[in-house]
TrEMBL record:
Natural source organism: Oikopleura dioica
Entry protein name: Protein kinase domain-containing protein
A GO molecular-function annotation: protein kinase activity
InterPro entries membership: Kinase-like_dom_sf, Prot_kinase_dom, Ser/Thr_kinase_AS
Alphabetical keyword list: ATP-binding, Nucleotide-binding
SUPFAM superfamilies: Protein kinase-like (PK-like) (SSF56112)
Length: 296
């Protein structure tokens, strides 16, 4: 796959790829707009990848959100598919690698998690599970006013599925970001995306994953099964306890007790409020059962 920055003009659509001369692909629109082109050679990609690409196109055509990549056009010949999308500056993984200690200050992290949670809440209300949320699938748009002010775009919907309230069975995604229920080959739901966002949040706040990058799949599964991660203040340097608590709530092994996208969006830390979050139904039930046990 190749990405190329291009200019959309009234008469022609130019695409320039590395070490190639500009070539005219198609004519569109009346306004000038800088875009990105995802080019896929069907023969080289194979049937499986083409099917994923077609699924991505189908989903992107049905959604529209400020923090989700915008699909502008789809061009197709007998041998090649071109996805014309809004242009972003880099992906979150690269952006982190450019920062001191490969992590971000709390206010900037707050902004990224708010945007990601808003996008997931939108997708989950539509019954869409992304299933491959990771730093490399979150694109970054830098602000011309401030290097610390960025917007994100969730991208790469090739593994996404529209499931509604149904549970999924197929194993897919990137192991370092996979929820325990997927790694353990259990059925799973929308909440698998929240685990992935928790891993991303942990990485943004600490500069590393909650486990070694080079672990074997067997060791990774064992570590994730118990999720005994380091949440100490020495690991989350300069981060508030509210921020750490939110990450812990995203990385609950049991998806039934894991915080939901809407709860993240409305949480006190994400919204910058001083008050405490209201307990959810699961917390209230636990409290009720604990009181019953004390009375017995």
């Amino acid at each position: 796959m190749t990405w190329a920055a291009s200019t959309l003009s009234a008469a022609i659509f130019w695409a320039k790829e590395p070490s190639e001369q500009p070539k005219i692909i198609e004519a569109f629109g009346e306004d000038q707009k800088l875009v990105a082109i995802k080019k896929v050679d069907k023969a080289k990609a194979g049937n499986a990848e083409v099917i994923l690409l077609e699924r991505e196109v189908q989903i992107l055509k049905t959604i529209g959100h400020a923090y989700i990549i915008e699909l502008l056009h789809v061009l197709e010949t007998s041998s090649t598919m071109y996805l014309v999308q809004e242009k972003c500056d880099t992906h979150l993984g690269n952006y982190l690698n450019q920062q001191d200690d490969k992590k971000l200050p709390e206010t900037q992290c707050q902004n990224i998690i708010r945007q990601a949670a808003d996008a997931l809440y939108y997708l989950h209300k539509k019954g869409i599970i992304h299933r491959d949320l990771k730093c490399e699938n979150i694109l970054v748009v830098r602000s011309p006013q401030s290097k610390f002010d960025i917007e994100i775009r969730i991208t790469d919907f090739g593994l996404a599925v529209i499931s509604g309230q149904e549970f999924q069975e197929s194993t897919c995604g990137t192991p370092l970001y996979m929820a325990p229920e997927i790694l353990l080959r259990h059925s799973y739901s929308l909440q698998c995306d929240i685990w992935s966002l928790g891993i991303i949040s942990y990485r943004i706040m600490t500069g590393c994953f909650p486990f070694p990058n080079s672990v074997t799949e067997a060791d990774l599964i064992e570590r994730i099964k118990v999720a005994n991660f380091d949440y100490t203040s020495s690991k989350f340097v300069s981060y508030s306890q509210k921020a750490i608590d939110l990450v812990q709530n995203m990385l609950k092994v049991d998806p039934a007790t894991r915080i939901a996208a809407g709860e993240i969006s409305k949480s006190a830390w994400v919204q910058g409020r001083e008050d405490k979050d209201m307990p959810n139904v699961i917390d209230l039930m636990r409290e009720f059962h604990a009181q019953e046990s004390d009375e017995d």
